[in-house]
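Contributing new records

If you add data, match the layout below exactly. Sequence lines come first and carry their own label; structure lines follow with theirs. Keep one chain per record. Anything else will be rejected by the validation script.
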Amino acid sequence: IVEGGRVDKLYADDGQTVQRGDTLIKLSNSTLTMDFMNRESQLFELINDRSNSEVTMRQDQIKTLNSLAEIEYQMQLAKRKYERNQELIKDKVIPREEFEQSRDEYNFLKKRKQLGERSLRQDSVLMRTRLRQLDESIRRMRANIDVARGTLNNLYVVAPISGQLATLKAEVGESKSAGANIGQIDDLNGFRVRANIDQHYISRISPGLKGEFDFGGQTHLLTITKVLPEVTNGQFAVDMEFEKAPEGMRRGQTLQIRLHLTGGAQAMLLPRGGFYQSTGGSWVFVVDKSGAFAEKRSIKLGRQNPQYYEVLSGLQPGEKVIVSSYDGYGDIQKLKLKD
């Protein structure tokens, strides 16, 4: 879990197959929700501030332009009067004081126009700078809101991979802290098998060797990918991968696997049974050809698999053996059999 909160809703159950991105649970967190709403309110305020600032500055700009237009008009009038008085003063038609007054008025208006144009340029620069600053503030606030929105989205806990939801540890109303583990998804394509094999076969086992097992009424294939060299209690381990994992398989499940060994030799086999717990495989009761009784006989067993023991000596092909439990037989050497 990235963000903590209270479990509001469950969208999946244990054992369900999910796809990457599927929603598993929904959390609620009032603190994160309020933070997101506050950020949105601040964004709206910034947008309104920018809009109002631009309107005010545009209005001030229009006023300045109107003022410049008025100054331009007055300056043109003053210019014509000044130029006319220049001619009149030469002929001494007007007093010099009147000429100087028209000249001073024209120069004053010309100066006012220059100052007004400079002010207009400065105001334009300030307006662009102010709007650019507000746009940058809005951009940062939008980025902050995107982060907050992503944080809220984290309240929807989704499956990181496709697979089978092995466990989901969450109940509606339960509080979960950030970083808590709420379950496990098994990658059906990533299943592997760790198998233990009798050390007798170690020289015949190598990566790439095929095996098979029965599951769900079908036979499925595996391949050995790794052979662990350490021998423990007379066995060594191998890792195997499925060619295609069967539906419904669970992590930790036990399988009975048959390996396809090459170069195998024929052997006499004895089915596994309860007799082994009593005799340790050193003797069995062998049924006479007449079927009327069974006699105790010493045997020697070799390799074994989940279904059979290999018989090295003591039995002949076709002989019948009692493989059920011998509990209660004691030191009996001969059993009488009844139909």
